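Hey,

Quick one before I head out. I ran the complex with 6-phosphogluconic acid overnight. Inputs first:
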Amino acid sequence: MSEPLSDFGVIGLAVMGQNLARNVASRDHKTSVYNRTTDKMTELIAEHGSETLVGQETLEDFVHSLAVPRKVMIMVKAGKPVDYVIADLLPLLDEGDIIIDGGNSLFTDTVRREKELSEKGFYFFGCGVSGGEEGALHGPSLMPGGSEKVWNWLQPILESISADDFSGGKCVTHVGADGAGHYVKMVHNGIEYAIMQMIAESYQIMKDGFGMNAGEIADVFETYNKGKLASYLFGISVPILSKEDPEGDGFLIEKVMDKAGQKGTGRWTAIESYQRGGELSTIAQAVNARVSSSEKEKRIEYSKLYTPPVSSHEKLDKDRFVQQLEEALYVAILVSYAQGFDLLEKAAEEQNWNLNFSEIARIWQGGCIIQAKILGTLQDAFLEDSEKPLLQIESIQQSVSAGWADLREVNKIGIDVGVPLYCIGAALT
Ligand code: 6PG
């Protein structure tokens, strides 16, 4: 008797691809895997191979191991590599087969690929995958875009592998046509940049303005993470900041070079806002902050030339500031989400995508990097009124108004103590 065919295939076995394939296989969907360099595949199978996770040495064997319509997920670096894999695959596939791109592809590439492949009789899905390596293995947030008909075929598999939302649903939905899924993932990443930058600014103002060390700041974030700022990003900041230097005194974070790079999805989001003419200041400023961070040598030269006057905050009440900062961050983060959703609305109109904002707020509730308690509030707000921009919905307007004074106060203190507040400042503006 011949072996049963696989329900799903994954090409590209770097850690994201490996973990995603293991996730699918663990949900009782037989999964074939293939990698251009065979060693990666054999290592994965040696360690995790099973009845439902099988390796193939050649692309031909891989394709023949799949049940039709074949469902092939490509997990390779965004850009040219995706085109190369598609070009190799096409001659082996049959009409009606489905290719899913799970990388952080630029949405215009996804629109182009979807068009080219549908003209040839194939289906193409651009699927945002968020949650890093852990998410890919245990439950990511998935943002698939492509044809409605194909969504029905993919839905059971994608639902089985994705994270849970706040009400027991799954963090996946059919986002829209062609590039909609990758667009939503791009905006997700832009918001991710802004929130990370706001966390960095909070760290710096507590450190430089109030003389707090990384351990004390970790304690503050731990408290925030039990309240309305509860989120993955605040959560991971606690162990990062509290880690002591294993080779010396003090906290490890204080020894890490303050020089950050970027893969580019935040930059794409900012560029999109300029092209479409919608304000996205918090995300654009997060990109600016990354650029400034990367220019360490220049910053060192400037610091030799300029000694800005700064005030001491010895007389200020630290405990009160920590409370004000929590309120300020809540508003600033709300503004950043609101700007992201405003961009989605503009894009939806221009690209003819039927985006459902409460659904997007729902599928970001688990698995992804920006998962946060606040997303429950946003989902409810969009259910309250799906037509208005977020900042015009009454419940959100009330939250912003309630924290406005604290946001202003935090910005004033930032200016006084000489800490640049790119994103927290942009949110106030
Ligand atoms: C995710 C992340 C992941 C990564 C981004 C941003 O959702 O799992 O967004 O995709 O964090 O690629 O990377 P950079 O910050 O390096 O640009």
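The chain has two domains: 8-178, 185-428.

Talk tomorrow,
K.
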